[in-house]
Task: structure prediction
Amino acid sequence: MHTSSSLFSPLPTSSTAPCPAPTAASSGLQNIKVDLLVVGASFAGLACARAAALAGLSVMVLEKKTSAGAKLHTTGIIVKDAVDSVPWLAEVPPALVRRIEGVRLYAPNMRHVDLHAPGYWFWATDAPALLDWMVDSARASGVDVRLGTLFEQALWMDGRWEVPVMHGPCITATYIVGADGPHSRVAKALGLSRNTRFLYGVEHEYQGARMAPDLLHCFIDRKLAPGYIGWALDGVGVSQIGLARRMGQDDANALRLAPLLKKIESVVTPGDAPPVAVRAGMIPCGGVLPVVARERALLVGDAAGMVSPVTAGGIHTALQHGERAGEAVARFVRGEVGDPATWFVRSYPRFLLKRSLRWAFDHFQSDWMFNHLLGTPQMRRMAELIYFHRKGGPLPKN
Ligand SMILES: Cc1cc2nc3c(=O)[nH]c(=O)nc-3n(C[C@H](O)[C@H](O)[C@H](O)COP(=O)(O)OP(=O)(O)OC[C@H]3O[C@@H](n4cnc5c(N)ncnc54)[C@H](O)[C@@H]3O)c2cc1C
Result:
């Protein structure tokens, strides 16, 4: 169990200013001062930046890719709890999402059960277009989003952060939020904890694949996807078929989609054409990291390890806690509360039950067990809890 003090680390300092004082030649044009600097223009970073800008802060986002929707590593499924709890999602254009009504869960021997919960559904999304829309929406709220801009370092100087950017301005910020994903550069630069336990996932996008529609098809198989599952769904404009597995040191090349496609060909066929795109990436699965904040800086989303250790879903928590982080930083900058680094991070999910389930799955995953127990009421209940579990609570008092 984390305590607030173990989540918080004291401050790094520097005696050399990375941002040069304005000269007559530069006339100060190369220095930009903001209340909040967010690193990473994805779910966590954009939700945070938008919330802070709506609360009146000057906010800049640095994103290393030239488009937020490029080279994505996510399937992009958004759970109903997120749609219910993140008001921003009510503004998403309907063309970017479609409803998935339930889950068809296959045992290793391909017997299946259908799981539904009354009134529950998931969103499949056009994730690249959704992220580009989120950038536009954040900009419309006043956020200065700088695409194609790599964050490398930040130094604490005279009560503020100084962030030099290659071929760009030197940024002075009151607060920094690292929302830069599983291998966070902000965490490294600020001496915060970094993710070490991962699942690795790969997914192909097909046009013309065939499967029973409106369902998320999930395949349990200890050989093909140790520690996780394979999946297939009709998404928005494309079908997505993928799998993920636990990563050990020698497993980098061990994830292959072809054996899964062969195994599931009786229920999912990708069609004759090759995939139109591939998404792949690492998913932190060790839970929230021990040290996710220091004075005037905090991590959120995958950078903080904020991914469900069981479902590997991180978009809901990234959006929800990103938005709340933006609001908390705004209240701090306005002088209403103390530094969120000391109190806000206590609201991060602990995933206690899910971490226990991950431990059990890692140690005792058994194809025999799933083949024999999948249809039982107990196993169905467990699966429904994992897929449809509701979570989330109010902000802690500072
Ligand atoms: C194969 C796969 C499938 C998944 N499917 C789902 C799913 O269906 N549903 C779900 O809920 N979760 C899913 N996840 C997890 C989900 O994608 C993540 O939890 C979520 O994207 C986290 O959002 P984030 O904003 O914290 O970080 P990220 O989405 O990782 O974004 C980090 C951003 O920071 C940028 N960045 C990184 N370093 C720098 C730097 N130095 N300077 C500037 N910018 C930088 C990156 O380019 C990126 O845009 C999946 C993950 C994988 C790998």
Q: What stands out?
A: The longest strand covers residues 31-39. The chain has one domain: 4-388. The radius of gyration is 22 Å.
